[in-house]
Design goal:
310 residues; mainly alpha; two-stranded antiparallel sheet; 15 helices; 2 strands; globular
Amino acid sequence: MNAPSSRPARWNRFFFRSAPPHALAVFRIGLGLFLLLVWGLRLPHVPMLYSSEGVVLPLMDATDVPLFLIPFFSVPPAFPAWLLYGTLLTALVGLTVGLFARAAAFIAFLLTAYFWNLSLHIFGTSFDQLFLFTLFVLSFSPSDRGLSLLMKLKHGSFLAQEPVCVLPQRILALQITATYLGVGWQKLYLPDWQSGRILYQGFTGRWATPVALFAARHLPMWAYDALVELTVWFEFMIPFGLWIRRFGIRWWFFLSGTVFHTLIALFLGIWWFLILIPAYILFFEPEEVESWFERKTKKTRKAQKTQKSA
């Protein structure tokens, strides 16, 4: 008789309980720094990509939307484009340091969507879509309730905390799981992923780095076949492995994912998915991350006391 009633309790605990903010806060900082790097690298190209002085092909033209939405779909001159870009960078700084993080994330989401409509949609990259979704989720998450300037101003310490709902952390973790599922499972049946030829083409194509070109000259085809087989099965299993806490399985997948995305960046120059590495912290229970911070804080304080007494 107790089993049916326990299911909603477990469901509520998993998705809706109040929890320490540390895991979400660490991810907020990692994401903010990463997006500042991404948008910072695009900084010299603002007039070309996002203003009427460049080559801009909007996904939706201002003539296709209601009158009150025209400003949100218009291509701006260079100076307003710079102002909008500066606002985006400012919002990302606010998100990173944890000051009015929800408002900062929402502003960053709106401006990212705006720039997506102007230019980014042409590339259709899944990482830009992942950034958009993540910023939208953080718009409704008090991720600045820990490790933030807000806590410093309210409580006098960056390490001060206030509990948050665990739901945003779960949503982001599930989105990463779905990303791996979509990318990995299709490789099981796509014809191009049944041999190592696709990897060889990548190592000699336009995404190839000097490291990949060097490898292409020396690796035999059987090595490409083995690497593709390993990649397919790794991406097939990682959506499950990230959630398995027993026997250290989760740690193995964290390590494997880190190596996997680092090698992609090293060989193919596709470094934008490196954001998934700090995102692995979202698969930890919030209480685990809090305990880790408490242990580190105690060790630091103990070391400081020892130095003072010496």
